[in-house]
Amino acid sequence: MGLEEKIPDGIALTTLDAMVNWARKRSVWPLGFGLACCAIEMMSTIASRFDMARFGMEVMRSSPRQADLMIVAGRVSNKMVPVLRRLYDQMPNPKWVISMGACASCGGIFNNYAIKQGVDRVVPVDIYVPGCPPRPEQLIDGILMLYKKIEKESVKRPLITQPNAQTQDERPGEVSGQPHRNPSGELNK
Q: Are 102 and 130 contacting, i.e. CB atoms less than 8 angstroms apart?
């Protein structure tokens, strides 16, 4: 008696948001940015035991222009910040970032001048995966949490991951070549 009986076979009804998010969710292509021991766990997630192929992520992309998910695994040194930001900027929209491990999320045990205390100071992070190093199951759980976040996005108004996230232009001293103070307080050029 309902509308379902009057619709011919082969016709599906949905919203544009649901259809676009369904396609985005099933075609996430990761860019592996492995910097330390967390990268070993990230690589084992792709291997046959945990099999990321079931999520459509058979291959880590080697070009940022072919990827829409950056997995930052490990500690980010200050010298790596411009490279990380450049790769993020080269990724097409929509793009997502997973911070994998304690070192990527907050600097971990490396509380010194050479290590960036959180990758969220460089790029906006969508999902944080805790651990030192996190197990592959934790990365898979983080990817599933990202899928839930993708399902809630809208074509009209995309979710802004961190509206208060600073870019390099807003933080003087983050880009190489700009003057900044070293740990002893002297001005470097």
A: yes
